[in-house]
Amino acid sequence: MAQGQTAPGIVSGRLSSEDIAANFDDLHPAYAPHEAAVAADRCYFCYDAPCVTACPTDIDIPLFIRQIQTGHAQAAAKTILDQNILGGMCARVCPTETLCEEACVRETAEGKPVEIGRLQRYATDTVMAAGVHPFERAASTGKTVAVVGAGPAGLACAHRLAMLGHDVVIHEAREKAGGLNEFGIAAYKSTENYAEAEVDWLLKIGGITIENGSALGRGVTLDGLRDAYDAVFLSIGLGGVNALRAEGEDKDGVRDAVDFIADLRQAADLSALPVGRNVVVIGGGMTAVDAAVQSKLLGAENVTIAYRRGREAMGASRFEQDLAASKGVKLMFNVQPVAVHGNGAATEIELEYTSSAGGELTGTGETTRLAADQVFKAIGQTLEGAPSELALDGRKIAVTGAGRTSVNGVWAGGDCAAGGDDLTVTAVAEGRDAAMDIHEAMKG
Ligand SMILES: Cc1cc2nc3c(=O)[nH]c(=O)nc-3n(C[C@H](O)[C@H](O)[C@H](O)COP(=O)(O)OP(=O)(O)OC[C@H]3O[C@@H](n4cnc5c(N)ncnc54)[C@H](O)[C@@H]3O)c2cc1C
Ligand code: SF4
């Protein structure tokens, strides 16, 4: 029997399993073939298409849409996967509303873009459902490459290198591959264990070994990898989390949003996952929205996102902000946390109003309190565990060109490397481009 949304504290089973399953249904369900045909028909097949320029992986979007339109979904998938081997996941998670679909001429003219993301999903789902892997390895080169981290950047790099005939070993700290595709992306974007299925499909290229539980910094050293392999690619993501810097942030009920989402993604039964009655999420990016929306879908009664700046500065796109609002999440702007109150466990959060002048944020001194038995910190991830010999650029690994680090023979890409947006598609592009550069460098 479900406990209901008003049960006090952080408890499991607020909603019935059936309600939770319905809540976590696919955000953008797959097209049926006739829907895909209708959607493809809307494309003008523009010359010099702005949607392509807006895609970080440069997929030939008009070509793949034309292939769908003419009934060749598997050829369309090949066009996509040539550029983006995780095109299936990107079709589910890309903020298309700020990338290809924002640039689409039909968005500019009519406010209704061609639904590129859903068409991409249609094509890539077709090829995966058929169990086809449309790439073959080149003859072995005898070269070996170590990839550290099996997230989107590492997987994309490994696949490209394997295709070019190199042997790749991925050292992955966790027991499961996929990185944030497996542990971070919202459950309603990656349903039916898609992340794991996609990794299995990607590995069909051959020549890639994943060593789970093998972590750089825990027995594995950069020097050791440089000695043992012809090249090294670092794709360790951002494992650390910024501190809230609010009094009482160590109280029970205060947690990193990313950990909560990882638990959620790995839960066999979502109704068994505890969630607060009054949840407050601190932050303004995708992670904040994902933690808030998923808390609401698990049955929290009141969920608030508290962001220190105005709506226009939020990292989450307008689509995501609207998604949160449509699920009943309240958005509060221009407030920052100053204290978490409660005797041992959180019961309230105190927020101070902010004002900003010339980009500088200051507290006004005026505060307000919200009931909060669960507080999620979603204020950004930080680089953790990067080898000390690597030069940094700000708080990330410094790179030049296609991911070359300051250490000879070592490349880096994805979230851990400086430059670029922290998005799945950017990580894939950087992994792929680093692989091509590594390939050229190994030719000597
Ligand atoms: C909650 C959340 C939601 C997101 N939602 C979206 C979204 O909807 N759309 C989108 O485009 N982007 C989203 N992102 C961003 C996206 O997930 C990342 O940009 C992307 O996963 C970065 O890929 P990566 O390969 O660089 O790193 P990661 O995916 O973080 O992978 C890094 C891998 O390295 C491993 N690792 C770390 N340290 C070591 C070590 N020392 N030794 C060995 N292995 C190690 C990790 O275990 C992990 O598997 C989201 C991010 C978060 C946190
Ligand atoms: S901009 Fe829009 S209409 Fe033009 S090719 Fe791209 S998807 Fe088609």
UniProtKB/TrEMBL annotation:
Keywords: Oxidoreductase. Residues 144-431 form the FAD/NAD(P)-binding domain. Residues 22-130 form the Dihydroprymidine dehydrogenase domain. InterPro entries: DPD_II, FAD/NAD-bd_sf, FAD/NAD-binding_dom, Helical_ferredxn. Its EC number is 1.3.1.1. GO terms for molecular function: dihydropyrimidine dehydrogenase (NAD+) activity; iron-sulfur cluster binding. This is NAD-dependent dihydropyrimidine dehydrogenase subunit PreT.
